């Protein structure tokens, strides 16, 4: 079953009071996943990967995301635990001139 944090983040993202144009899910096993994509159950966490593997995972997610949206003009919000968000934020920073992000510690405390 989905973690409590995942359910909380998805509920927040889907709330009609928020103005997210698109919602994607980031999977340790499957990378960037469409919201309506059905995945088989798996037990995997990127904490099992080395730093180099995590960096490659995040860079791949950014490259796939770039095929879906123009990151130069997009506001991207990440709801993820610390290790996922740090990997993704590092990859965004390395792959975009016009990227600024901030983690919300109230949503996912460190």
Written overview of the protein:
This protein is mostly helical and 110 residues long. 37% of the residues lie in helices and 7% in strands. The chain has a two-stranded antiparallel sheet. Strand 1 and strand 2 form a beta hairpin. Helix 2 (51-66) packs across helix 3 (82-95). It is globular, with a radius of gyration of 14 Å. The protein starts with a helix and ends in a 15-residue tail after the last helix. The model has no long low-confidence stretch (mean pLDDT 81).
Write the layout of secondary structure elements.
Layout: H1 4-14, E1 24-27, E2 31-34, H2 51-66, H3 82-95
Helix pairs in contact: 2-3
List keywords for this structure.
mainly alpha; globular; 110 residues; 2 strands; 3 helices; 37% helix; two-stranded antiparallel ribbon
Helix content: 25-40%
Question: Which radius of gyration do the C-alpha atoms yield?
Answer: 14 Å
Q: What is the average of the pLDDT values?
A: 81
Query: Structural class, from helix and strand content?
Result: mainly alpha
How much beta, percentage-wise?
A: 5-15%
Q: How many DSSP-defined strands?
A: 2
Q: Give the H and E element order.
A: HEEHH
* Alpha-carbon distance between the two ends: 23 Å
Spatial order of strands in the largest sheet? 1-2
How would the global form be characterised? globular
Query: How many distinct helices?
Result: 3
Query: Which regions are unreliable across 5 or more consecutive residues at pLDDT < 50?
Result: none
What composes the largest sheet? Answer: 2 strands, antiparallel
